[in-house]
Design goal:
Elements lengths: L18 H17 L6 H12 L4 H9 L7 H14 L3 H12 L6 H13 L3 H14 L4 H13 L3 H14 L4 H13 L3 H14 L4 H13 L3 H10 L6 H19 L11 H17 L6 H17 L3 H13 L6 H13 L3 H15 L3 H17 L3 H16 L8 H14 L3 H14 L4 H13 L3 H14 L4 H13 L3 H14 L4 H13 L3 E9 L10 E11 L7 E14 L2 E16 L2 E11 L4 E12 L4 E9 L6 H5 L4 E13 L2 E12 L4 E16 L2 E14 L11 E18 L2 E16 L3 E17 L2 E14 L2 E15 L1
Antiparallel strand pairs: 1-2, 1-16, 2-3, 3-4, 4-5, 5-6, 6-7, 7-8, 8-9, 9-10, 10-11, 11-12, 12-13, 13-14, 14-15, 15-16
């Protein structure tokens, strides 16, 4: 996950615990040189060999490269040449000399071993094994040769052969440390690192003062993922490792800390302890090695691993900046780090960048379900946040099917199935999401994630009480789960349980302040606590006067709500203005109001006192309005008002006021179906009594993410006891208007949303004494939600309908603004 922690496997094979093999070969070769028959200029040659014995190999090698080898002592010279070139690590020269001059000669066994080692260093496994076979045929009991052969078998990937021979070697003399090191090497090559460590540990107990054994033990600790213990050993004996290997060990220590920073901890307060330690460690290492040109590659590896610690600490800006700097430097970034970077992009709301990375990762990880499931999940959420819902649904459904089809994938099937269900919820296919999650809960009642996700779908379907009940079941099993408390917090906001929402938000914010969903919950309740400004207005654009609204009519209404007082209360104040030209003259209405709103679970009540001026002095009005939720589906409401806002402006122009009483019963099956029955009465000051009964409903007929079509039905009947006054008051009428209401999201990016709306309706209006006439309406509007604190809308509509038997056309524009601050 953090790069190759076993660098010795990818370098020319010279493990520390086999250095004695080369030393033995050197001793044999020098002995051969000292005892063989001297050649001409023997004194000069012997001096060169002695210099080579001290490490100065170039002079003697130059001599041998120029010497004729067709003499009687050619075997001796070729053996010397091969052995000395081997000391100089000139592996290719060793192989070339043997092939040109030595293959036909009878060379010492030690020289054959030197050639075999050269082939091994050049990764020419078959040639190395052939030479070891020749040497062992002449000296079958030579332990050094047998260990050399074992090493090559291990390097060549022939684990079974290497292990069999190594175990036999150990069984012969189990108390010899270096034989156990050979078996440890076999285990390391096969990535059985803990078995290798066990053998190296036994070797160390047999030869605690042997430097080569100590080196091998340190290597085994590092390879087994115990770099801290290896570092402690090196600190006690610095000569065990060179500078380059110590840098790699330091990189392993940092990688281990990063790995542990993702692991579960005993207490939430310790979540960042390891990550903070890792970041401090990297800061010290970078300061120590940044100026060392030999440390460039090790520093690059540590820069990559450090990205993981940065993401644990939610320092996503820094993580992304480091990744982009590495890319500019041309440093390849491994997949494990790309997953961190993709998550960082998603955290920073750069969903498109995350999407590209996750798609690339998923393409490479398809063969491993344990890895590809995470990549598919990351790609899914990046698609969701990129608003590519069709692709997200397709990916989630495909991933679920793919994992269900293979035994290896069944382990992650449940999470894939839950994401597939949520994909339908995110794409507004809530019935399908509900069906899938309810099926999952039935099949696995203890699956807390499925229950919490189901509660989220219930909230989306306007069933907060049902969601609350589902979450109570989860609470009994794991009361402080983060996902549970988050969903409970949002549900409490829906239910107007302000204190409960605060308690939940405070708790998760203290525990997980970096979590985006926690921040979203905190933001939601902070928005709730903001003052709120609402402004709305209209203007009639018709050139001819309308009997009901007049000509050139326009009006505005503004109300400012205070921040909540003791959670449940809000104070408000506002003013309104309306104007229109009628046959009787111009009507103007100015009003000012102040009041309070009380919001608690199941109940909302609003009361106000108002003052009105419509040309006949100041008048005082009162209003009391409330609603009560009987359940998620049923709601009753009512209002009583003195100087009703429903009084026509034309009536006020004639100094006629009205008081009103209304009552309503609402049934909301879900977010797609909503019906309302209302009854109301207006008591005019001129003695007229108006009674009205209405039914209004909304049925969803088409849903596709970003496009919603509803059939809206409006049916009403009214009667006036004294028709014919100076305002439109038919004796009896019936109004029927079915309307197709289509909404389309033009653009959405997190909280920013821009949508348009088209309404088209055709109905009928029947008025006693005037027959039945046609009603038609066409409306278009756009709405922009800039953030969760600011949204606005603008619309235009044209309506044709009869008044007293005469068709009238009403052209109107309207706007509204909602701002929280």
């Amino acid at each position: 996950m953090f790069g190759n922690p076993f660098p010795s496997l990818s370098l020319p094979v010279r493990p520390a615990f086999h250095a004695a093999v080369a030393a033995g070969a050197m001793a044999c070769a020098l002995a051969y040189a000292d005892t063989a028959t001297p050649v001409p200029v023997a004194e000069s040659y012997d001096a060169l060999v002695r210099r080579a014995r001290t490490g100065d190999t170039t002079p003697v090698l130059d001599y041998l490269r120029q010497e004729r080898l067709d003499r009687a002592d050619a075997a001796r010279l070729v053996a010397d040449w091969i052995d000395i070139a081997g000391w100089a690590r000139l592996d290719q020269e060793v192989v070339d000399v043997y092939r040109r001059h030595g293959a036909s000669l009878t060379l010492p066994v030690s020289t054959l071993a030197s050639v075999a080692r050269a082939h091994r260093n050049l990764r020419q496994w078959d040639d190395a094994l052939a030479l070891y076979a020749r040497a062992l045929a002449r000296s079958p009991d030579d332990a050094e040769l047998r260990m050399g052969e074992i090493h090559v078998l291990a390097d060549a990937g022939r684990d079974a052969d290497a292990r069999t021979k190594a175990e036999a070697l150990v069984a012969e003399t189990p108390m010899v440390a270096r034989r156990r090191l050979a078996l440890a090497y076999v285990h390391t090559a096969a990535r059985r690192f803990h078995a290798a460590l066990a053998e190296a540990s036994r070797a160390r107990s047999l030869a605690p003062d042997d430097a080569e054994v100590q080196m091998a033990y340190a290597d085994a600790l590092q390879s087994a993922g115990l770099p801290v213990q290896a570092q402690a050993l090196v600190d006690a004996q610095p000569a065990l490792m060179g500078a380059a290997q110590q840098r790699r060990l330091q990189a392993d220590i940092g990688a281990e800390m990063v790995r542990l920073s993702f692991a579960p901890v005993r207490s939430e307060s310790e979540r960042f302890a390891v990550a903070d330690k890792a970041l401090a460690f990297y800061e010290q290492v970078f300061a120590r090695w940044s100026a060392d040109p030999q440390a460039v590659r090790d520093l690059q590896r540590m820069r990559i691993d450090r990205i993981g610690a940065l993401t644990v600490r939610s320092r996503m800006d820094t993580a992304v900046a480091e990744y982009e700097a590495l890319r500019r430097d041309g440093v390849p970034v491994p997949d494990y780090a790309l997953r961190w970077v993709a998550g960082a992009y998603l955290y920073l709301r750069q969903a498109q960048a995350a999407r590209l990375l996750y798609a690339e990762l998923l393409e490479r990880s398809q063969a491993d379900p344990s890895v590809s499931s995470g990549d598919a999940s990351g790609l899914f959420y990046s698609l969701v946040e990129s608003e590519a819902m069709d692709a997200a649904v397709s990916l989630a459904d495909g991933t679920q099917k793919a994992f269900a089809a293979t035994p290896a994938g069944r382990a992650v099937w449940a999470s894939a199935a839950m994401e597939a269900a949520q994909a339908h919820s995110f794409s507004d296919d809530t019935p399908e999401a509900q069906l899938r999650l309810e099926r999952m809960v039935q099949q696995a009642p203890g699956h807390l994630g499925a229950r919490i996700a189901l509660a989220g779908v219930y909230r989306g379907r306007a069933w907060p009480r049902r969601a609350e009940q589902e979450l109570k079941l989860v609470e009994a099993m794991e009361p402080r789960a983060l996902s549970l408390e988050l969903q409970q917090g949002f549900t409490a906001m829906d239910l107007q349980e302000w204190k409960q929402a605060d308690a939940l938000a405070d708790d998760v914010l203290e525990r997980y302040p970096e979590n985006l969903q926690v921040q979203r919950l905190d933001r939601t309740r902070r928005v709730f606590r903001m003052p709120e400004l609402r402004v709305s207005g209209y203007r009639g654009l018709s050139s001819s006067p309308n009997p009901s609204t007049g000509n050139g009519d326009y009006g505005t209404d503004t109300v400012l709500y205070s921040a909540p007082v003791q959670d449940d209360w809000r104070l408000f104040a506002g003013f309104g203005f309306g104007s229109g030209d009628f046959r009787e003259g111009r009507g103007v209405h100015r009003s000012y109001r102040a009041g309070g709103e009380w919001r608690v679970r199941d109940n909302t009540v609003e009361g106000e006192i108002s003052t009105h001026n419509f040309g006949y002095g100041q008048r005082t009005g009162l209003r009391l309005e409330g609603r009560h939720d009987l359940s998620d589906q049923w709601q009753i409401s009512g209002a009583a008002e003195r100087l009703s806002r429903d009084t026509p402006l034309r009536a006020l122009r004639s100094d006629i006021t009205a008081d009103s009483v209304t009552a309503a019963l609402r049934w909301r099956a879900n977010e797609r179906r909503d019906w309302n029955v209302s009854v109301g009465g207006l008591d005019y000051s001129d003695g007229n009594r108006r009674l009205s009964v209405g039914v209004a409903g909304r049925e969803r007929i088409y849903t596709r993410y970003g496009v919603y079509a509803d059939l809206v039905m409006e049916l009403s009947h009214s009667r006036n006891s004294r028709p014919g006054g100076p305002y439109f008051a038919p004796e009896s009428d019936v109004f029927l208007l079915p309307t197709l209401d289509v909404a389309h999201v033009l653009y959405r990016h997190y909280q920013l949303e821009w949508r348009q709306r088209l309404q088209l309706g055709v109905g009928a209006y029947a008025q006693r004494g005037y027959g039945v006439g046609e009603v038609a309406t066409l409306g278009y509007g756009q709405r922009l939600r800039v953030s969760d604190t600011l949204e606005m809308g603008l619309s235009f509509s044209i309506t044709r309908r009869p008044y007293d038997g005469v068709d009238e056309r009403i052209l109107r524009t309207a706007f509204d603004l909602l701002y929280r601050f």
